[in-house]
Predict the 3D structure of the following.
Amino acid sequence: MTVSADCHIWTLDRLLEEAPSLDSLTVEDAPFVNDHWDYKWEQSLEFIQHCIELMPTSCIRNEDGQPVAMAFCYGQSPYHVNMGGFKVLPEHRKQGLGKKVHLDMCRKVLAINRKLSFTSKSTTQFPSIFAKAQFQMHERVFWGKLNFHKEGKVSSAR
């Protein structure tokens, strides 16, 4: 059996600074996003495509149109939308791109009357970008993958 660590959900219900208006991910970007997602699994491409089609996304592209900083959302509850797939490619870090994508996502989620949430593995790994936006700890949750082995079969639940 595989188990992940406990996590915390952090939420934001109002934006404290002006947000840029950035590009959005498209379904054509899904394979690239999937290849760079830390939680990639067998069905993650379809999951990401679904999220891009239905939920807010944000990205900054290079001169070739490739995302270099990106985020997508997925539904968490009737009141919250969780930001996932938040990534700035290593060669583009330390340029403020993550903050721009983060603020754009906040603006887009708040515009659909939902609170933005972010799941962090621990209170000590809470990224400074979210702390500066004054996200508040909402609740402690389990986040991960369970593998159950029965009679030679493996099944997964996320």
Strands lie at 6-12, 57-61, 67-75, 80-88, 115-120, 136-142, 146-150, 153-157.
